[in-house]
Amino acid sequence: MAQETLEEIRKARLEKLEKIKSLGINPYPPLFEKRNTVGECRELHDKSIRTAGRILSLRTHGKATFADLADETGKIQLLFRFDELGEEKYKFLELLDIGDFLGVAGTVIKTQAGETTISVESYELLSKSLRPLPSQWYGFKDVEERYRKRYLDLILNPAVKNNLDLRWKMERKIREFLWSKKFTEVETPVLQNLYGGTNAKPFTTHLNALDQDMYLRVAPELYLKRLVVGGYERVFEIARNFRNEGMDHSHQPEFTMLEWYISYADYHVVMDLVEEMMKFLAQELYGTQQITIGDKTIGIDHVWPRRTIKELVKEHLGISWNEISETEIKKILAEHKIEVAGLWSRNKALFGLFDHLVTKKLIEPTWVIDYPREVSPLSKEHRDDPENFVERFEGYMGGTEVFDGWSEINSGVEQRLRFENEQKNMKAGADETQPLDEEFIEALEYGMPPLGGIGFGIDRLTMLFTNTDAIREVIAFPLLRPETGEIKIISGNKKNLATSNGAKLSISRDQAVELLHSKMQNVNLRRHSYCVEAVMRALAENLGGDVDKWGILGLLHDGDYEVTKDDWTKHTLLMMDWLKETGEHDEELHRAFKSHNHVHTNNNPPDSLMEWALFCCDELTGFIVAVALIRPDKKLASVDVDSIIKKFGQKEFAKAVKREDIYMCEEKLGIPLREFVQLALGAMQKISDNIGL
What we know:
By secondary structure, the chain is α+β, with helices and mostly antiparallel strands. The protein is built from 28 helices and 18 strands. The strands form 4 sheets. Strands 6-10-11-18-17-16-15-14 form an 8-stranded mixed beta sheet, sandwiched between helices. The chain has a 5-stranded mixed β-barrel with strand order 1-2-3-5-4. It is globular, with a radius of gyration of 30 Å.
């Protein structure tokens, strides 16, 4: 017998629903008196109980029907007997389905097989389910569907609920720990006139009441410090933060962070307290002071060592920082393809080497202390070397940074100098910098006591305690691309000229994003990649192409640029190798990568519609961004088609852009230039918040 489709199952259940109503029974009653949880029922042998939950299975054997009933405390078997219920109530069981909610009353017994069971004496339908649970129908199609329909994931996968249960318990225990240390839990604004507290790109929105742009909080730090200025000596907040940056296995644009501040304390006091908290949490959550990370068991019960960045670079890289020349430093950076963002400095190079080459080696709990002042704009200058370093620490475990803390700046004059230096970095090209916050500086000038502080992600701490390597596994509802795709396509003339081999790609969009971020560090290059992806998806929809395949090509077309920029003969070919390592062997996709760099590799020039689409839109996206950046607000939203077309005729504007490539849209894609610009601009505007334009 052919497997039923979802619609066939739903239709059958709707028919049952109407039958139930025709019997004068309300399939969605407002109330049921649940006296016992399922977990309690399992312990109440030979006792009368009254419980409720969801049906997970139904099995009929003549005049006896068995079912599994589950609530948040567990699962128990139900036994319905014809002799006990009578013909009418027993026959009604035919109208029940897996997924229905049922209230039952009866006695807890042991079956001959020894299974704890409720012998049902009466029951009541509490909610009729119209859709089958996935495991009973076709299973989850892919991992992303688990995240998208987390409510089903929780029903079917106990491990998922266990992770979330641990997260909620951990948050409660953190609060209990900090309350015991005389901290006050507070709240600070999410909607802010000026973002700050960390180097991050904010989300922007518009407040209609005041007709002004606002930012979503990237960190609660600057407002927590205002409370310290106001007289609170120990404060903490478990805050929802928003950073308009990439998504990968350890990052989400919306996440939860804990920050706390202790008056009259420095960074050593904060490290002591964090270490105590971690040992407390491990004991409360697991009854031990050992944590499993990957396949390693790590003890945290000892005093964690405190090592400077210089010491760790010497230990792991063999570099004596006080002796190495600047020429040698730059040579090492070039060998490892490490870029120093913004204004170059020797100390920023030190941090770059540590961050890229040392951190993964820090498996045992380690406090890394004394960071370059250029990378820590909110940390107090080091008492022993104020010109070069600050009193900042990060806590590493299992090769991952878990904690970030500081001795805080409490001088308004010094804070202003740090903010002004951040503005210089921004002008030099650093993408993530601190804005100058005059109101915060004014608050500091009223006086703030010596202060120690820390910030760490609740999500990542949960990953640590659950030995999970994907942040989406420990977030109840992680951010996902809409099922319809992130780009709303502009309507146009469908030409249906695109051809495809018809094979479904083995690499998902999320995997492609992770690959891009693992190989491309430059934020502006990533932004370009997302723009090309958006336009390629719009073109695929417009021309009848494979939207996912065209999108992946656009996203990854320059993915190996940072590695191959010194040898153009390898450009795109290296990306093909990386794709093969993921298991993606689509010939059409690989041929498109080859054609994209045909000038330097003597490969065939673009031939298919997908290849010409990339050829044309690659240059156009850069041109549109250039137009946006000369607008007063530097936003795509203020760009229109006319302004782009006008700039096409100004040869000195964005003169590096190959306009002739863009004009090929008319010959190769059959799309007039103006329509091509309109389509591309519309696609890019739809993702403008995500790319910060």
